[in-house]
Amino acid sequence: MPxxxxxxxxxxxxxxxxxxxxxxxxxxxxxxxxxxxxxxxPPSRPGGIxxxxxxxxxxxxxxxxxxPEPVAEESIGSKSLDDLNRDSPLKAVFFDYDSAELAAxxxxxxxxxxxxxxxxxxxxxxxxxxxDERGTAEYNLALGERRAIAARGxxxxxxxxxxxxxxxxxxxxxxxxxxxDESAWRKNRRAxxxxxxx
Length: 198
Known about the structure:
Elements: H1 10-29, H2 72-77, H3 81-86, E1 93-94, H4 104-119, E2 124-130, H5 137-157, E3 165-171, H6 182-188, E4 190-197
Parallel strand pairs: 2-3
Antiparallel strand pairs: 1-4, 2-4
C-alpha cells in the first residue's frame, strides 16, 4: 500500500522548517568581503609599449620686478646750470693756429653737440671763442669771434635755431691751460660751449 505524504508527523515538519530557517539565517549573517579595487594597467602605445604617465607641470617661478635704471638723459635734464657746465655734455671745438676753419674732428664734435641740443630743445647756449697767448689782444679778440661764429654757423646748418646760440670772444684772456708751449696753446685755441638757460 502506497505511503500517504499527508501522514507526515507535524513535529518532523516543524523541525525541518526550523532547520531551514536556521540555515537561511546563518547564511544572511555571514560577512561578505567587499570587492577589491584593482589598478588599471596604463594605456599602451602602438607596438604594445606602455605609455608613460604625463609629467607634472613645471613650477612657474615669478620673476622679481626690477625697476629700470634712470636714463642718463633724464639726470642731465634735472641738473642745475652750474652742474651742467661743470660736467658739460657739450664738447669743445679746437682750431689750428691762426685759423677759424672747422677741421673734421671739430665738425664731428659739433654734430654730437647738435644732437644734445636737439634733445634739450629749450637750452640756450653761449659759444665762447678763445685763442692762445700769441698775438695782440685786439687780433685775438677778432680771431676768437670768427671761431665762435664758425661753430655757430655749423650748428645752424645742422638744424639748431640761431636764436638759441649766442657768441662772444674772450681772445687770449681766459686760457684753459696756462702753459707756454704748443701743448697748452693747442688746448686754448677753442670754441667753448656754456649753457646759459634751460
